[in-house]
Amino acid sequence: MPTSTVEDYLKHLYILQQRARTGRRVPLGKLAEAIGVTPGTATSMIKTLATSGLVRYTPRGGARLTAAGESLALMVLRRHRLVELLLVKVLGLDWSEVHVEAERLEHAVSDKVLEKIDAMLGHPSVDPHGDPIPSLDGELSGRTLTNLTDCQLNRVVRIARVADQNPLFLQFAEHHGLTPGIDLVVESRDPAADAVTIRIASSEPTAAITLGSIAAAKFLVEVTRTSNSREEGVATANLVGG
Amino acid sequence: MPTSTVEDYLKHLYILQQRARTGRRVPLGKLAEAIGVTPGTATSMIKTLATSGLVRYTPRGGARLTAAGESLALMVLRRHRLVELLLVKVLGLDWSEVHVEAERLEHAVSDKVLEKIDAMLGHPSVDPHGDPIPSLDGELSGRTLTNLTDCQLNRVVRIARVADQNPLFLQFAEHHGLTPGIDLVVESRDPAADAVTIRIASSEPTAAITLGSIAAAKFLVEVTRTSNSREEGVATANLVGG
DNA sequence: CGCGATGTTTTGACTAATCAAAACCATCTA
DNA sequence: TAGATGGTTTTGATTAGTCAAAACATCGCG
């Protein structure tokens, strides 16, 4: 049974690996930063993970999960996201705070308890932020998503994920009603101003909201089936988040 | 913030202390055994707890919690028992298995989550085994209980607690319907046979059950208010269990 | 090519928690 | 009183995880 430290390394490595372009290899400095340790610590930890077959590692070439490491990482993610959902749906915590809570609980939930949670929530496929929940056999539902800096203008899109766990950001999103499931349109983009202007789709008139492109990129959307969609300008979103 | 190891030492020390007659002092061997470490380990750990003011310790004289240590221990117990109740009431786990699960979760539940659990369960005062749940300010509801080897014969008593966390024992108890809230009478005791014969009080006839005195002592009961009770032969039960 | 900047690895040291086994003490017993 | 006994404490060693800081690669640039 891996220690909770090991679980954290695997989890963060998985997440960074999804973002990485360069052959899924993650520089140890990035990993160290994500976990919150010094680079040297990450190096030595990764070396021991490599000898236990969970990670492949070439000095100065970065690390990458083996199949064994990846399936462990997915189980950690599954625990994390199901716990988040439990905290929101059953215990009524705010979605902006469940991430931190789940960071501790994800290491203490047994398989038995996890499956009870899963059943009680009706085998959900995404957590409160829209992040997909790996199934018991390590599958991830791979929807194809765009973000607000890429999607078509003036077309109704639905928020599928909010890809940042920062509580302040999540509170901002919630305050403007920008949560998974909400429909909106991108009205305009202004590259010079680095701005994206959106408006929530609703029967009543709503105010426009202007976001910087960094924030806009955190909202991953899908074209709603009801509108006449064409396959165009749609990039594959990375499947990761907290 | 105490480590989960420290929390375990405090919790077990508290529990043993309640059982201890001799001035609440707990021999370190007993503590070591309860925690599952070697005696030497307990000695060194207790010494460090003593220097941090959570425990008073005299070499070869045993250990005892300070006020600070005790209030920490109570908070651990509160987490443990509320989590047990959550697992049984909300997630539907069996009462025989929640103790082990709670052993891990009790160290990962934040105050915020704990208070949500407490509220959702309606601020309960006992856990699924009838063990009292310390309140936020460290109070324990102190009911006066007898056990089946002490209580009066042929009087209806109600099971208030089942003071053993062993899953096999709990399954046995459940199988015979011997769970908190159930009314029964002790029909006879046979010291020579070390046996206690009881029968569940019910409108329909029920079979008699014969227990050894060790098992019988694990069922703590209170005289039901409905029967005409006298204050007689009622010993103070210790307030502890897992 | 050579030199810095940047990021990575090594080194040496530390803390928390643990064990095995030796040393120790306090009694109880002959 | 002298052992023997049973529990307690010490000692010395180990493992996981971590940091600070020195040493080391690599790559881009002049």
Q: If you had to describe this structure to a student in words, what would you say it looks like?
A:
Chain A is an alpha+beta fold. Chain A has eight helices and eight strands; from the N terminus they run H-H-H-E-E-H-H-H-E-E-H-E-E-E-H-E. In chain A, strands 3-8-4-5-6-7 form a six-stranded antiparallel sheet. A two-stranded antiparallel sheet of chain A has the order 1-2. In chain A, strand 6 (195-200) and strand 7 form a beta hairpin. Chains A and B meet through helix 5 and helix 6 of A and helix 5 and helix 6 of B. Chain A binds a DNA duplex (30 and 30 nucleotides) through residues 3, 5, 27-29, 37-45, 47-48, 59-60.
Secondary-structure topology with pairs:
The structure is a homodimer of 242-residue chains.
Chain A: H1 4-19, H2 28-35, H3 39-51, E1 55-58, E2 62-65, H4 67-89, H5 98-105, H6 111-120, E3 146-147, E4 156-162, H7 167-175, E5 183-190, E6 195-200, E7 208-212, H8 213-216, E8 219-223
The structure holds a DNA duplex (30 and 30 nucleotides).
Determine the N-to-C terminus distance of chain A.
Answer: 22 Å
Pick out the low-confidence regions of chain A: 227-242
Gyration radius of chain A, in Å: 19 Å
Continuous helix count of chain A? 8
**Could you tell me the strand content of chain A as a percent range?**
15-25%
Strand order of the largest sheet of chain A: 3-8-4-5-6-7
- Quaternary structure annotation: homodimer
The biggest beta sheet of chain A reads: 6 strands, antiparallel
Number of strands of chain A: 8
In round numbers, the mean pLDDT of chain A is 90
Written as H for each helix and E for each strand, in order along the chain, the element string of chain A is HHHEEHHHEEHEEEHE
Shape of chain A: globular
> What pair of chains forms the biggest interface?
A-B, 18 and 18 residues
Q: What structural class do helix, strand and pairing data of chain A support?
A: alpha+beta
